Amino acid sequence: MTQKAAAPAEEERTPRRTRGVSLRLRFYRVIRKILLGFIAVSVINVVFSNFFYTPKMYRINRDNRELAIKYRILRDRIRTARQRTEEIRHRDNHVYRTLFSADTLSIPGIRGEYPAEKYASMADDPYARLMIPAWKELDAWARLLYLTSVSFDELQPMARDKEKMAQAIPALWPIDRKALHGNHIGAFNPRRYHPTLHRIQAHNGVDFGSNRGTPIYATGDGVVEKAQRSGFNGGFGHQVLLDHGFGYKTRYAHMERVDVAVGDTVRRGDPIGTVGNTGRSSGPHLHYEVIYKGRPVNPINYFDRNITEAEYERLMAQMRDTKYETL
Fold first, then answer.
1. How do strand 285-292 and strand 222-228 relate by DSSP bridges?
2. Residue range 94-112: average pLDDT?
């Protein structure tokens, strides 16, 4: 009886093991089908993406086109703004600064381009051909804006003190023109060959040949910065240096007599001394300089601003290198 009962139990366990194996096999088959399906879909997607546009790729391409258009619009707007700033800068140079008798503002290096290294970080970007030119346009505009801003900052106090500035700018002849020897004026010449030193040496002023004792006049309101009544003084001899403010100074050299002292305030047309022959000089004359922001400029451009073009040309024709042994 025991053996007969055990046999059916053994028979029941065998089908259960068979059913478990079948379930696992079906599960593995399902997983395999899923993996194969995933691989198939991936392969199809790769092939389709390489040979056909997907909706996503259409969106990407559309966004790329829009981005390129926006960069072009940006560059156009920058160029337009830069042109308008250039127009303001032109008026600044040819109207505003002329009105206030100020020289053209120049800041070394401000108009040059930035080195290529500034844009090197963008060189590998897919949009470098759009980004780099836009940045260059923007940088050029920024430099122009800075230059214009500095110029206006400089003109602002001039506008505020216009009347005072008008009296300060050297705008007279330093001696009476009738006292000139043969209407002779020695030229301003940055590349003059010096007749005594036998080398190229700038002549930073103009020479007025005249008799000893001819009165010399201040060409603008100012304060006496130097009043040297003795000594060689680097070849200038007896000299006066006036500070007119607003960046202007004037020098009167080779004087015989100095009639002002350091710290004196002078008005345009006031006598400050007389023509002499001191320092490096071979004959009585006045060496006259106009200095703007530490740089010598041609004094002839400040003589009588109402002069006509024909009179200016005649005056320039009279000017030539002199034999006076000045600096």
1. unpaired
2. 69
